């Protein structure tokens, strides 16, 4: 029977399947960080269990690590407790860990791909919803809760119910200044924050094929914002080339065997998806969110919508509440909105290509006096790479703050937060109320829009410069 | 895990849709290394508003949360489930739940019940008219009862059995650990390993 890519990977990982029960799926890689693992290790300890496969497990510190003065002890006592607990657990259970100060430390979804332990055809889990990022390699990767983290630690498997499959086809050539971030924001605006619920999304089409691995990661990363369980993209030469250059890439005969397998990882031509959606690249534009969920987005050239024009009662109410929270009036052109803070970073847009793209625009310019800009590389390795390329100097000369790696203002668990009423243009993935700090107001944008906005002080695209 | 067979209590109407886990428990409250004590963070931002439904005395003892559509979207934090449970909720009713939240809740013994939106509205009306109305969530019979109303709901037999028996997933899987070992012995050698570390 013909299968979709997601169904093939699923089938290859079934350890046990029984009528009326979820399938027991083998997990190839388990990523761990300080916020969602403590209770899982504690559960193991209480039950006298061990980590079954320390060689398929890796930990890093990211969610609440400081991005300044990382050589000093962590000031916030509770963050320190979480990080210390992770270090102790890693030592006690024999799990590889990349701690603050280590070149491989950073956001868990940046670290996996850069080490080359994210490869096609794998099942990858992490106690973090943006695990979908790894789907860019043609892996089935999804976020899990802490009980499931404990389950994977103890058994290297998870009992799971097979999700439905959705194909999102994007064809054509993206207009100048339109990035993969704009593509995914447009997709979420189209299908809604619940549109992907119960599905694994496969992104297909010529636009997707033309994207770099990092661009693909940005798209898969935000699958969760459309409600999907996971997002993936079939591997191709771009994928193989990217993996090949990484430390944990298979070698010798293993490489050939791996590539032979990876080449089979395509949805069959006659495979049936439960749902299909089509988008034309030519119709896309730089996108920005105006509300408090990632589906509340519009092209930057549009104006703040009028809730009264929204037919659906629930959506209208949500839009009204969002505008009140965001302090915005219906009809206001989006480009007239001034921001206080620019955040360039996160597992959505904190990789080297994102920093390069922003630096290209900022080079030789000065930031608007009214804004502050934080540049937070996704990992310490990305930071090193950027410094080798001189990008740090471009950011510093521009007037931005060049920080150490971590999640930082994406979720404001560390000191990098918005103040009450402060407004950001952020390359992260969530614009929920209070996400970047209590009372903070977030507009999600691409790195290009973030850079142009930092120059002008109002939401802008490079074309406005 | 505590068994869930049937629960009777009072309900709290949360007339909001798209309640994401950042609202259920904001990130600043996640900094604990145990599974309890998260009740303080539950809906923390909204609780600053004295009119917010959780602050209204007539709903203080509620154990069933009745929410708008798309409850539990966003971050995968299981703390959202613990916060609801620590506060005293035994069940959440909504017309739609985000997948990860629903998975987490059913694993942890917080019953998430899916009812059509019009039934949710009906429950809201009834409890707002009389907040002392008793509500029963019956997993054995797969229905929700309040006053003279009975609303049936669906839940797959496997999950229902697990909840009724209070069975822990890890224990269930360990019974089949031989199948895991067998699978492992046939995994291809090119699959990556995190150890020994290469860089
Ligand atoms: S960068 Fe943001 S979205 Fe990504 S893992 Fe960190 S907190 Fe989560």
Question: Helix/strand-derived class of chain B?
Answer: alpha/beta
Describe the largest sheet of chain A: 5 strands, parallel
Oligomer: heterodimer
Helix content of chain A: 25-40%
- What overall geometry of chain A do the principal axes of the alpha carbons give? globular
Bound molecules: iron/sulfur cluster
Query: What Rg of chain B is obtained from the alpha carbons, in whole angstroms?
Result: 19 Å
- Span between N and C termini of chain A? 54 Å
Q: Can you count the beta strands of chain B?
A: 8
Tally of DSSP helical segments of chain B: 8
Strand order of the largest sheet of chain B: 1-6-7-8
Q: Order of SSEs of chain B, N→C?
A: EEHHEHEHEHEEEHHH
Tell me, rounded to a whole number, the average pLDDT of chain A: 96
Distance between the termini of chain B: 42 Å
Structural class of chain A: alpha/beta
Rg calc of chain A: 21 Å
Question: What would your notes on this structure say?
Answer:
The complex is a heterodimer of chains A (465) and B (199). Chain A is an alpha/beta fold and 465 residues long. In chain A, 32% of the residues lie in helices and 17% in strands. Chain A is built from 16 helices and 19 strands. Chain A has helices at 5-11, 38-47, 77-93, 108-115, 146-155, 180-191, 206-209, 213-221, 237-244, 253-262, 313-326, 346-349, 352-362, 380-388, 391-398, 447-456; strands at 14-16, 23-26, 29-32, 57-60, 96-98, 123-126, 140-143, 157-160, 164-171, 199-204, 230-232, 275-280, 287-289, 297-299, 341-344, 372-375, 401-402, 423-426, 441-444. In chain A, strands 5-4-3-6-7 form a 5-stranded parallel beta sheet, with helices on both faces. In chain A, a hairpin with a 6-residue loop joins strand 1 and strand 2 (23-26). The longest helix of chain A has 17 residues, at 77-93. Chain A starts with a helix and ends in a 9-residue tail after the last helix. With 199 residues, chain B is an alpha/beta fold. Chain B is 32% helix and 16% strand. Chain B contains 8 helices and 8 strands, in the order E-E-H-H-E-H-E-H-E-H-E-E-E-H-H-H. Chain B has helices spanning 21-24, 44-47, 79-87, 99-108, 117-129, 157-165, 169-174, 177-185, and strands spanning 6-9, 11-14, 64-67, 91-94, 111-114, 135-138, 143-146, 149-152. Chain B has a 4-stranded antiparallel beta sheet, with helices on one face. In chain B, strands 2-3-4-5 form a 4-stranded parallel beta sheet. In chain B, strand 4 (91-94), helix 4 and strand 5 (111-114) form a beta-alpha-beta unit. Classes of the chains: A alpha/beta (465), B alpha/beta (199). At the A-B interface, helix 2, helix 3, helix 5, helix 10 and helix 11 of A face helix 4, helix 7 and helix 8 of B. The structure holds iron/sulfur cluster (SF4). Iron/sulfur cluster binds next to helix 12 of chain A.
């Amino acid at each position: 029977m013909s299968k979709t890519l997601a169904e093939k990977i699923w089938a290859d990982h079934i350890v046990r399947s029984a009528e009326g029960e979820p399938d027991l799926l083998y997990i190839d890689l388990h990523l761990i960080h300080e916020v969602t693992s403590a209770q899982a290790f504690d559960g193991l300890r209480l039950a006298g269990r061990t980590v079954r496969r320390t060689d398929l497990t890796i930990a890093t510190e990211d969610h609440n690590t400081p991005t300044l003065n990382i050589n000093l002890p962590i000031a916030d006592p509770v963050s320190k407790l979480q990080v210390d607990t992770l270090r102790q657990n890693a030592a006690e259970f024999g799990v590889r860990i990349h701690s603050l100060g280590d070149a491989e430390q950073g956001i868990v979804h940046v670290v996996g791909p850069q080490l080359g332990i994210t490869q096609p055809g794998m099942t990858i889990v992490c106690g973090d919803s943006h695990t979908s990022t790894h789907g860019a390699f043609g892996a089935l990767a999804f976020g899990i809760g802490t009980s499931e983290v404990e389950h994977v630690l103890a058994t290297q498997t998870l009992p799971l119910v097979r999700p439905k499959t959705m194909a999102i086809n994007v064809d054509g050539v993206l207009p100048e200044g339109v990035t993969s971030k704009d593509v995914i924001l447009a997709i979420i605006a189209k299908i809604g924050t619940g549109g992907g619920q119960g599905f694994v999304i496969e992104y297909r089409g010529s636009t997707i094929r033309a994207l770099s691995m990092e661009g693909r990661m940005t798209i898969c990363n935000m699958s969760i914002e459309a409600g999907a369980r996971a997002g993936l993209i079939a591997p191709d030469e771009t994928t193989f080339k990217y993996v090949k250059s990484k430390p944990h890439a298979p070698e010798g005969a293993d490489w050939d065997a791996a590539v032979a397998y990876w080449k089979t990882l395509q949805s069959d031509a006659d495979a049936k998806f439960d749902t299909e959606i089509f988008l034309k690249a030519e119709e896309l534009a730089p996108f920005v969110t105006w509300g408090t969920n990632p589906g509340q987005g519009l092209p930057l050239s549009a104006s703040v919508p009028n809730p009264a024009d929204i037919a659906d009662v629930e959506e209208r109410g949500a839009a009204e509440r969002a505008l009140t929270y965001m302090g915005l009036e219906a009809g206001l052109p989006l480009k007239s909105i001034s921001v206080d803070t620019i955040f360039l970073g996160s597992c959505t847009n904190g990789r080297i290509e994102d920093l390069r793209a922003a630096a290209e625009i900022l080079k030789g310019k000065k930031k608007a006096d009214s804004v502050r800009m934080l540049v937070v590389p996704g990992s310490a390795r990305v930071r090193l790479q950027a410094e080798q390329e001189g990008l740090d100097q471009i950011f510093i000369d521009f007037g931005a703050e060049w920080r150490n790696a971590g999640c930082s203002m994406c979720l404001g668990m560390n000191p990098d937060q918005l103040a009450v009423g402060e407004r950001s243009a952020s390359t992260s993935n969530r614009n929920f109320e209070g996400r970047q700090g209590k009372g903070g107001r977030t507009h999600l944008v691409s790195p290009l829009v973030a850079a142009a906005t930092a120059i002008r002080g109002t939401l802008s695209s490079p074309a406005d410069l | 895990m505590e068994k869930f067979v049937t629960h009777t209590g009072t309900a709290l109407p949360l007339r909001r849709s798209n309640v994401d886990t950042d609202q259920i428990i904001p990130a600043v409250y996640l900094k604990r290394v145990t599974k309890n004590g998260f009740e303080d963070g539950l809906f923390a931002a909204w609780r600053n508003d004295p009119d917010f439904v959780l602050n209204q005395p007539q709903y203080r003892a509620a154990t069933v949360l009745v929410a708008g559509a798309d409850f539990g979207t966003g971050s995968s934090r299981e703390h959202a489930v613990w916060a609801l449970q620590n506060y005293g909720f035994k069940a959440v009713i909504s017309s739609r739940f985000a997948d990860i939240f629903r998975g987490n809740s059913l694993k942890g013994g917080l019953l998430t019940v899916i009812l059509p939106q019009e039934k949710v509205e009906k429950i809201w009306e009834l409890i707002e008219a009389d907040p002392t109305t008793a509500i029963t969530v019956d997993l054995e019979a797969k229905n929700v009862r309040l006053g003279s109303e009975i609303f049936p709901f669906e839940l797959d037999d496997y999950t229902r059995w697990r909840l009724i028996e209070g069975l822990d997933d890890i224990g269930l899987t360990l019974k089949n650990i031989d199948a895991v070992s067998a699978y492992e012995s046939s995994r291809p050698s090119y699959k990556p390993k995190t150890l020994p570390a290469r860089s």
